[in-house]
Amino acid sequence: MSEWIPWRAQYLSIILECEYPTLAEECQVCHQATADIRCLSCQTSYMWCRPCAVKSHIHNPFHRIQKWTGQFYDDITLHDLGYVFNLGHNGAPCPNNMAEHGGDWFCDQFTIVHSTGIFIHRLRWCRCNDASLEDQHLQLLWSHIFPSTVTKPQTGFTFDVLEHFLIDSLECKTSARSFYQKLCWFSNNAFPDSLPDHYWELLRVSWMWRDLSNRKRAGFGHDTERYPEHGELAVFCPACPQLEINLPGDWKDLYNELVLHYIWERLDTLIIIKGILWLCIMWSTETLWLST
Ligand SMILES: [Zn+2]
Ligand SMILES: [Zn+2]
Ligand SMILES: [Zn+2]
User: I need a labelling partner for 113 at 20 to 30 A (CA). Which of 100, 121, 149, 266 fits?
Assistant: First the structure.
């Protein structure tokens, strides 16, 4: 810290400079229109006109965009700029689907939950190769989005956010509610409650994701002929009783000792407690011996 203190004022100055409007008179892509859009997620200080901002984000639908109002930068979304999330053609519109809004093959308000927030996009389905309405949820999967429902999905979770939630819940013990609230704060830190509540969808989808991850890691992903038998997805626990390893073969005849033995084996995972208990027993035995 002492090394940083002399630099503190300069750090603050640079952080404030980064928020200062880097206004460019013309769009830095087409060099024709006035530039009034910037992106907080891109690692550039580019300013774009609206159509060029959309084109530059064909493969980055989860970036945070702002527009210059003349006095300050205000949040705006790619949806507001006319962005369409196209499925099946690497961001390009499907040649067999010319729909512009509504209907079974175009969704005007599709919610996608990502690790950087909650996004609402127009979504155009792909109609190639005799695509059916029943298979629409699979199109989302091909785009790394887990559908919240199989039938007519209107919400999806990116694989990225599901992996984030899995690690957060394991390592940080984050609850689903807290995790979802965090995403709301990312999306709108002034009014996080104004965002749609997909907490129950997150819960359901994260259970499916965990189940699929377990199957994949247990080696069942490629073996479509065989499904996991009872206990085959369980993680091996070396502290659990194993015959002739940490449990004597005649344990059934040792019923009286079994209870103590079982407790002792359970404590095996808590080495510190075991050590403390051992020290206490030694200390009390010694005290007893000394006092007699
Ligand atoms: Zn432009
Ligand atoms: Zn961007
Ligand atoms: Zn197509």
Answer: 100
* Ion ligand 2: protein residues whose beta carbon lies under 5 Å: 39, 41-42, 63
pTM for this structure?
Answer: 0.77
DSSP 170: I
Residue ranges of the domains in the chain?
18-78, 83-225, 236-291
Q: What is d(CA 153, CA 108) in angstroms, rounded to the nearest whole number?
A: 13
CA distances from 88 to 91, 97, 107, 143, 147 (A): 8, 11, 15, 8, 15
> Whose atoms come closest to the Cα of 52: which ligand?
1
Print pLDDT tens along the chain (292 aa): 889 999 999 999 998 887 776 666 788 889 888 888 999 999 887 889 999 999 999 999 999 999 988 888 899 999 999 999 999 998 899 999 988 888 889 999 999 999 999 999 999 999 998 899 999 999 999 999 999 999 999 999 999 999 999 999 999 999 999 999 999 999 988 888 888 899 999 999 999 999 999 888 888 877 667 788 888 888 778 888 788 888 777 777 775 666 666 666 666 556 556 566 666 665 555 454 444 4
CA distances (Å), origin 18, targets 22, 91, 102, 199: 8, 31, 40, 34
Spacing, Cα 162 to ligand 1 middle (Å):
35
Q: Could you tell me the distance, in angstroms and rounded to a whole number, from the CA of residue 54 to the centre of ligand 2? A: 9
Q: Work out the burial of residue 162: count CB atoms within 10 Å of its CB; fewer than 13 is exposed, 13-18 middle, 19 or more buried.
A: buried
